[in-house]
Design goal:
The protein is built from 13 helices and twelve strands. It is an alpha/beta fold and 332 residues long. Bound molecules: glyoxylic acid (GLV) (2 copies).
Length: 332
């Protein structure tokens, strides 16, 4: 069986070694990602593809891969993959849930605190020698402890945010497509609200939903207009959940106090005007980027690949309905 890895510097221990023990692993040896044209040409005899969140795995790509059985995504989010197209072709899609939860919530919390206390801006102030003397009115910042956290999406990462909020005596509001069970709400001290009400009440709004057709531009000009002028938006999920030009507009006109972003719609491209604003913190998509998390992601990516190519159901199968497809196909 042949496995293709399109990026040689994938961090995390042991992935390559484990795969090479069982499969013929082909690694793109140049610096950076395998260019798409080359990738399309290389897929003819590939059984398993390891994909990065920045790679588009669409119907066209899958049509170049007649033997492909599994796409093992090195990410929890899989909006880069056309899952329906994969399912139609009997191809399994896997991801890395769970292991990214704490690292992502840690970063979301770091930039939430960072934007509230102006950490990046005051760092620049000190570094550039502008600090001449201590003054009590310098950079008076927002409060964090005791304010209200609004969580959009109470999945694993949203729940991890609620846990952290407890340490800061912050009441938690959340919204989601389904209401969580009362026991979980009680444990997290989280109160369910429709999105609009959450936006009106929260001091910090943090996004933890996957990107899909329903969440695309969920935070648009209207949503931003409901937020308090003193409120902050934190996004460590996916860029396209927020309408970026509308966000730039809201920040520029101080309709909201600030934003802390780890993700962007067209990474690494920033929306026009975003980088010129002072009331933002901009991070280059590093939510899951801690050493332990990278190791666990690598190991999960390998586990999923190995299970899929040795006839077992992978532990983190995104499209379980594919198993029925596969059985039908296998009987031909
Ligand atoms: C990171 O963005 C991930 O989806 O794992
Ligand atoms: C601040 O540094 C204080 O001592 O209050």
């Amino acid at each position: 069986m042949k496995v293709l890895l399109t990026y040689k510097n994938l961090p995390g221990k042991g992935l390559l070694e484990r795969l090479e023990r069982q499969f013929d692993v082909c690694v793109y040896e140049q610096d950076g990602y395998m260019p798409r044209e080359e990738l399309l040409k290389s897929l003819g005899d590939v059984d398993g593809l390891i994909s990065m969140l920045s790679e588009r795995v669409d119907a066209k790509l899958l049509d170049h891969a007649p033997k492909l059985k599994v796409v093992s995504n090195y990410a929890v989010g899989y909006n880069n993959i056309d899952v329906a197209a994969a399912t139609d072709r009997g191809i399994m899609v896997t991801n890395t849930p769970g292991v990214v939860t704490d690292a992502t919530a840690d970063l979301a919390w770091a930039i939430l605190m960072g934007i509230a206390r102006d950490v990046c801006r005051v760092d620049r102030f000190v570094r550039t020698g502008e600090w001449k003397e201590w003054r009590p009115e310098m950079f008076v910042a927002a409060d964090i402890t005791g304010t209200t956290l609004g969580i959009i999406g109470l999945g694993r990462i949203g729940q991890a945010m609620a846990k952290r909020a407890a340490g800061f005596d912050m009441p938690v509001l959340y919204t989601d497509v389904f209401r969580a069970d009362p026991e979980l709400e009680r444990r997290l001290g989280a109160q369910f609200l429709p999105l609009d009400d959450l936006l009106r009440k929260a001091d910090f709004v943090t996004i933890h939903v996957p990107l899909n057709a329903d969440t695309h531009h969920l935070i648009d000009a209207h949503a931003l207009s409901l937020m308090k002028p003193s409120a902050y938006l934190v996004n460590t999920a996916r860029g396209a959940i927020v309408d970026e030009p509308a966000l730039v507009e809201a920040l520029r006109n101080e309709k909201i106090a600030g934003a802390a972003l780890d993700v962007y719609e067209l990474e690494p491209k920033l929306a026009d005007g975003l980088a010129e604003l002072d009331n933002v913190i901009l991070i280059p998509h590093l939510g899951a980027n801690s050493r332990r998390t990278r190791d666990r992601m690598a190991s999960m990516t390998a586990d999923n690949m190995i299970a899929a190519l040795t006839g077992e159901q992978p532990p983190n199968l995104v499209n379980p309905e594919v198993m029925a497809h596969r059985r039908v196909r296998d009987t031909f």
